[in-house]
Design goal:
Layout lengths: L2 H11 L4 H7 L4 H8 L7 H11 L3 H6 L9 H12 L3 H11 L3 H18 L2 H23 L5 H10 L7
Helix pairs in contact: 2-3, 6-7, 9-10
Amino acid sequence: MSISNRVKEVRKNFKLSQAAFGEKLSVSRDVINDVENDRVTPKELFLQHLCTVFNVNENWLRDGIGEMFIETNKTFISALANEYNLDTLDEKIIECYLNLGALQRKVLKDCLRNFVDAVLSEENYEEYREEYLKNNANSVAARNGNSDKIDELAKLYDNSNGGEEK
């Protein structure tokens, strides 16, 4: 596969028109068309910019070696955004969470748990707890090979709120 075909493959992977792809790379649709149809050899700066903007593996783009994309938190988050139709704020929240240390994540989870506890009435809490246990019973069974572990899941859920009794 030629470099022209790989440029086209990157564009198609992002489901962009030649005009939209060119806009992201600060070139015209005609430039993209000429590159994809092998009428011009892409300039060094163009290739570097394409790799930076779309997180493309430069070895793959130039020589077809390796994977198309370089895996980073950013590409992982972009994949989630595409799959779950996340907006920019959703992406930023996920990125910030991933950049937190273990202690910071624990503090945030404790705050969120307290928030949920404060919002949910006693009746809603029990309903939510039962729904949580029911929804997660299958994953516990899949990991442990049986469904006898529902009590274990309930204890994990109840103990995850910092030992507070509901």
